[in-house]
């Protein structure tokens, strides 16, 4: 199967802006003044991600875009991760499903404007849907897309990365979910505040990474959830 950037997103719901053709365009002067909204071009995004190309191919590597807009950076990362999955010819259907969700769980975004936020989530979900249909046809479990949708709801949030606070309907410090597969079928979720994730402080006692030096910070989760089957995230959360 030729990925060809998932046919350049041609099968994605085009009622949503893909933003490749207009990535460098200014939406409106008001939004530029109020929110500094300017989209990065596809060429620049590709060149920047090429600098860490090996990380884009690692499904476990997490990416955070603190001003994600409609998802230009995150979409390109997801396309590269999916291309990495497609290049492995010996994967079973179940392994492809698991790896697909693993790739989705690795993406995080913060966006201050609600319309951009919703477009970003839907765009990443559409890319996921296109990939699954191209590589598995209709044989994948439909609950997988529901789980991907739930992950994107929790990973792509409306907030202000500078203040590290939610904006819109939610209030308080930004919280992100960490997802970790336990075995082949189960996911473990732990929530961390964004501020704690980027904070740096010394550990008083020796810890797991004490051999790396004295200045290692291990954040504590604010919530810890039971392990659940990765196809049942919608019901669990």
Task: Indicate the topology.
Elements: H1 4-8, H2 29-35, H3 42-50, H4 53-57, E1 63-65, H5 72-86, H6 93-105, E2 107-111, H7 114-136, H8 143-155, E3 156-160, E4 165-166, E5 175-182, E6 186-193, H9 194-198, E7 223-224, E8 228-229, H10 233-236
Parallel strand pairs: 1-2, 2-3
Antiparallel strand pairs: 3-4, 5-6, 6-7, 6-8
Helix pairs in contact: 3-5, 5-6, 5-7, 6-7, 6-8, 7-8
Explain the overall architecture.
By secondary structure, the chain is α/β, with parallel strands linked by helices. The protein has one domain. It has 10 helices and 8 strands. The protein has helices spanning 4-8, 29-35, 42-50, 53-57, 72-86, 93-105, 114-136, 143-155, 194-198, 233-236; strands at 63-65, 107-111, 156-160, 165-166, 175-182, 186-193, 223-224, 228-229. The chain has a 4-stranded mixed beta sheet. Strands 5, 6, 7 and 8 form a 4-stranded antiparallel beta sheet that branches. A hairpin with a 4-residue loop joins strand 3 (156-160) and strand 4 (165-166). The longest helix is centred in the middle third of the chain and has 23 residues, at 114-136. The chain is globular and about 45 Å long. The two termini are 35 Å apart. The model is unreliable at 10-25, 31-36 and 201-212 (pLDDT under 50).
């Amino acid at each position: 199967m030729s990925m060809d950037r998932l046919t350049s997103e041609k099968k994605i719901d085009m009622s949503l802006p893909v933003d490749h053709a207009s990535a460098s365009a200014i939406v409106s002067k008001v939004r530029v003044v109020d929110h500094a909204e300017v989209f990065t071009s596809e060429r620049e995004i590709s060149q920047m991600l090429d600098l860490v190309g090996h990380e884009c191919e690692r499904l476990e590597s997490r990416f955070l875009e603190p001003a994600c807009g409609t998802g230009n950076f995150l979409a390109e990362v997801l396309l590269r991760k999916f291309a990495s999955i497609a290049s492995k010819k010996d994967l079973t259907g179940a392994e492809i499903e698991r790896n697909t969700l693993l790739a989705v769980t690795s993406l995080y975004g913060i966006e201050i404007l609600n319309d951009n936020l919703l477009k970003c989530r839907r765009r990443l979900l559409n890319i996921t849907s296109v990939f699954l249909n191209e590589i598995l046809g209709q044989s994948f479990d439909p609950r997988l897309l529901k789980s991907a949708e739930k992950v994107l709801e929790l990973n792509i949030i409306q907030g202000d990365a500078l203040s590290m606070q939610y904006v819109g309907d939610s209030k308080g410090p930004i919280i992100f979910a960490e997802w970790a597969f336990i075995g082949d079928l189960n996911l473990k979720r732990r929530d961390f505040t964004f501020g704690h994730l980027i904070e740096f402080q010394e550990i008083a006692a020796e810890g797991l990474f004490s051999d790396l030096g004295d200045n290692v910070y291990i954040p504590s989760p604010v919530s810890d959830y039971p392990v659940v089957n990765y196809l049942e995230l919608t019901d669990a959360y």
